[in-house]
Specification:
The protein is of the alpha+beta class. The protein is about 25% helix and about 25% strand. The protein has 18 helices and 38 strands. The strands form 10 sheets. Strands 16-17-15-20-22-25-27 form a 7-stranded parallel sheet. It is globular and about 80 Å long.
């Protein structure tokens, strides 16, 4: 008997409505007295003036005609809305950007009005200032100092608010230019490796005036030339406020720079106010790999045919072994830069593995392959070491942002007289992250780029969260490790990971707002052999892997978005007696456990496989899932009498990828670990950075069953608009006390404003149905956090017996408002709603049939 297929249903057109009003307020802050604030800030303004005067002396004979300028850093306690508008009223000031500040200790009279020891929040403003502008700011401050009730000139009233809330005003200095970039560590490592010419990246402040940008580059070129170096590449992208160069200098000058770490202001390069950050290059790496790694042959199995159509998915990664038996019919590569010629066959490891997972999934499972060819653009080259090992990396001689921008643009725009390379692509997989750029507070240029490209070309980027392979030190004496039970050992590992959150953050560009960030659960289908020194750190299923990066994302948005299997990571105890506490090392050999993927083998053989682990694997599986979701929507489009326009495929796919996600039972051991680490209760928002929206079930969202119905909605909204969707309640649920679950997911793409701390231009959200048939308190991520990104996903459960009449509906209202700036193009969104009986309930209720009939759709079962 043929299996019954229950297709997803489609909402009728929603009813237009005004958007819902948003409530909530800001924290109440006690501020210092005016006299204390003025007294504290006076020397800071004086130091600013002195610094600019010194710079004026240095530049007075400069042949480029540079005027003395400095970047001002204004840190405030509390929020100051629209402070950027003030800059436009002061000649000589130029707005550069802003960001949020968190975890500010109370001091100087600033404290929370309800809890004096509570950490505070604020803002950081960055402004370029010349002599005249600084003089005006200082004059206004001195007038306010003498008369706190003074009237400020037109347009400058918010300066008064800034003076009241100001925590610190200072220049952007040499220390800021290297803080948490890893540049000094990178330069020292390259010096130790004996490199004669050492590359580095300089991110300049983006200036709106092209002449100002050119002057900055000319001065920077002169500074680097004074180090006997040169600028090798430059990239300017106004849409993401990005301006950067690649430079290089001989080792003796780099050695001199490194030797001044205790006197950075004496380094002329680091004293140039046109520089925002000095960063390392070539940190986007995977590996290292051993060329003698053993692989095994694929089991003989016929592969189904049916590959057709144009590419839907693109993979930006290393060069795959395209003639491998699992890839030759599925993968086509586009290599305009000739990166493939840098590879030997056995070095094509990561691209081969990712392509294998996207096309076939874990080879242990024998899954159905995707139905369309995979477009591959190599963006990495092999980097070889003296011991014979190698890694794959984005080359030192390119800017990553420039490379990725060109690769995406080539897909959709003509180039050198040739047509677009693959305009059918709607999903791009990026399983590469920058280990030198963990997400801290500010969106990285790479994340800003893919957010802008996602909106411009209406794409879904699927990005890996990043891997952390450092040893894990347990709060357990070394001799006691093997006396722990498996459950105790799991708790000790989770507690150590929770305590080390600062060093386990997302890796750029995983903080992307428009993209979907995927982390890894500790899962695979392999059968590892017994080992005397390796052990499994976890007994609970669906836990985040020990290598998986943690959130939160920008402005504490939920990140990672979802988790998928990334391969189990076994661990070994660090040997020796020099460490008092038990320390665990990650086993990196390509043997089980892990996910089985195609591999080149030692001699570039075409029928080999290996076992790998990582968030790259999880992102590849999400990309594979996106391909099947697109196919499902296409099939639904042919079935439904309600049209689903193709322009909604991306946002619907994005919503569906998240829709099957739940925390399952993973929150329980995580909660215990956080409570032990913090010596108190665990905040639900702490779970978000560990678990995101949870472990995703990609099979579940492709079809319904008799007791589970999923309905798709879509539309577009402008600022101030809303849309109401009516979900009919199945009468058979009335008075039933068995647990039922309602899941609502909403996804969209937004333009971005890169110099505004809000960043996201459009905010789209839903409010849970205001109705007593469900419990409005969700069971997963915190609602406020779920509304900070571009995916809102909430899960509700209820088991109350509440009678209702046939014909009653759950009304779900989708709303839209401007956030960082006004927008003209309507925002497209996808809405997914599922009602189901919770797993394990044996009662049979025809939920699907009753909802289908009341929606009035004719999708056949």
């Amino acid at each position: 008997m043929a299996e019954t297929i229950y297709h997803l249903l489609v909402f009728p057109q929603p009813i237009p409505a005004e958007r819902a009003k948003r409530g909530g307020g800001r924290d109440k802050i006690n501020r210092p007295r005016h006299s204390d604030q003025a007294r504290r800030l006076t020397p800071q303004f004086k130091r600013l003036q002195e610094a600019l005067d010194r710079q004026s002396i240095v530049l007075q004979d400069n042949p480029l005609g540079l005027q003395p300028e400095q970047v001002l850093v204004l840190e405030t306690i509390g929020s100051i809305e629209n402070f950027a508008n003030v800059v436009g009223y002061v000649p000589g000031l130029e707005w550069l950007g802003e960001s949020e500040l968190h975890d500010i200790p109370p001091a100087h009279g600033f404290e929370d009005s309800k809890k004096a020891d509570k950490d505070l929040r604020g803002q950081l403003f960055l402004v370029m200032s010349d002599q005249a502008a600084l003089r005006q700011l200082r004059n206004l401050f001195e007038q306010w100092q003498n008369d706190p009730d003074m009237t400020f000139p037109y347009g400058l009233a918010r300066l008064k608010t800034a003076f009241i809330h100001l925590r610190e005003i200072r220049p952007w200095g040499a220390e800021d230019r290297i803080r948490e970039t890893g540049i000094m560590e990178d330069l020292e490592a390259r010096l130790q490796d004996g490199q004669e010419v050492i590359p580095f990246e300089v991110e300049l402040w983006y200036r709106r005036d092209p002449q100002q940008r050119e002057k900055a580059v000319s001065h920077l070129r002169a500074l680097i030339a004074s180090m006997d170096g040169e600028i090798t590449r430059q990239c300017t992208l106004p849409d993401i406020a990005y301006h950067a160069i690649l430079g290089q200098a001989p080792r003796d000058h780099v050695q001199d720079l490194v030797g001044h770490q205790n006197a950075l202001e004496d380094v002329e390069l680091l004293s140039f106010d046109g520089i925002k950050l000095l960063r390392p290059v070539g940190q986007c790496t995977v590996g290292p790999f051993d060329p003698d790694t053993e692989t095994d042959a694929l089991p003989e199995a016929p592969l189904p045919g049916g590959l057709s159509g144009d590419p839907l998915v693109a993979l930006f990664d290393g060069m795959p072994l395209t003639r491998h038996k699992r890839l030759e019919d599925w993968v086509g590569f586009d290599d305009p830069d000739g990166y493939r010629f840098s590879y030997q066959a056995h070095e094509r490891v990561h691209g081969t593995g990712m392509a294998s997972l996207i096309c076939h999934g874990d080879l242990e499972e024998g899954q159905e392959p995707i139905g369309r060819p995979l477009y591959v653009r190599p963006i990495m080259k092999p980097r070889r070491f003296d011991d014979g090992k190698f890694e794959e990396a984005i080359p030192d001689e390119v800017l990553t942002v420039d490379l990725v921008h060109q690769a995406v643009r080539r897909l959709y725009e003509p180039e050198n007289g040739e047509p677009p390379a693959a305009p059918s692509v709607r999903v791009i997989n990026l399983s590469v992250g920058d280990s030198a750029r963990p997400f801290i507070r500010e969106m990285s240029p790479w994340a800003r780029l893919i957010d802008w490209l996602a909106w411009k070309y209406k794409l879904l980027f699927i990005v890996s969260a990043g891997n952390h392979g450092q040893p894990i030190e347990l709060d357990v004496p070394r001799p006691e490790l093997w006396n722990l039970s498996s459950e105790e050992r799991e708790g000790a590992v989770l507690q150590a990971i929770a305590a080390d959150s600062r060093n386990r953050r997302l890796l750029s560009p995983a903080e992307t707002l428009n993209g979907l960030t995927v982390a890894a659960t500790h899962e695979d289908r392999s059968t590892p052999t017994a080992s005397s020194y390796l052990f499994d750190p976890f007994v609970t299923t669906k836990l985040p892997s020990v290598y998986s990066a943690q959130g939160p994302g920008y402005r504490r948005a939920v990140k990672p978005d979802i988790f998928l299997p990334g391969g189990r990571q076994f661990m070994a105890e660090k040997r020796g007696s020099s460490h008092a506490k038990a320390t665990l090392l990650l086993d990196d050999f390509p043997r089980p456990p892990g996910q089985s993927v195609a591999a080149p083998g030692r001699e570039g053989l075409l029928d080999q496989r290996m076992h790998t682990r990582g968030t790259s694997n999880a992102a590849a599986l999400a990309t594979r899932g996106a391909s099947f979701i697109f196919d499902m929507i296409e099939e639904l489009r042919s079935q439904a009498d309600t049209e689903i326009p193709e322009e909604y495929d991306v946002v619907l796919t994005k919503a569906l990828l998240v829709h099957g996600a739940t925390w399952a039972d993973a929150d329980k051991p995580i909660k215990e670990a956080i409570e032990r680490t913090q010596n108190g209760t665990a905040n639900r928002e702490d779970f978000d950075r560990f678990l995101g929206y949870g472990s995703a079930d990609l099979h579940k969202v492709l079809a319904c069953d008799e007791q589970r119905v999923t309905v798709l909605g879509f539309g577009e909204l402008s600022d101030g608009q809303g849309a109401e969707f009516s979900f009919p309640l199945p009468p058979s649920l009335s008075a039933v006390t068995d647990a039922r679950r309602l899941t609502i997911s909403l996804a969209w793409l937004t333009p971005v404003q890169c110099t505004n701390q809000k960043y996201r231009v459009a905010h789209v959200w839903f409010n849970p149905p205001k109705w007593n048939k469900i419990d409005e308190k969700g069971i997963n991520a915190v609602r406020t956090a779920s509304q900070r990104g571009t995916v809102q996903h909430e899960v509700f459960e209820d088991s109350r017996a509440i009678p209702f009449e046939d014909g009653e509906n759950l009304v779900i209202k989708v709303n839209c408002r401007k956030d960082a700036a006004a927008f003209s193009e309507p925002i497209r969104y996808g809405l997914i709603v599922t009602l189901e009986m919770k797993e394990g309930v044996e009662i049979s209720i025809p939920i699907y049939q009753e909802v289908r009939e009341r929606l009035g759709v004719r999708i056949p079962v």
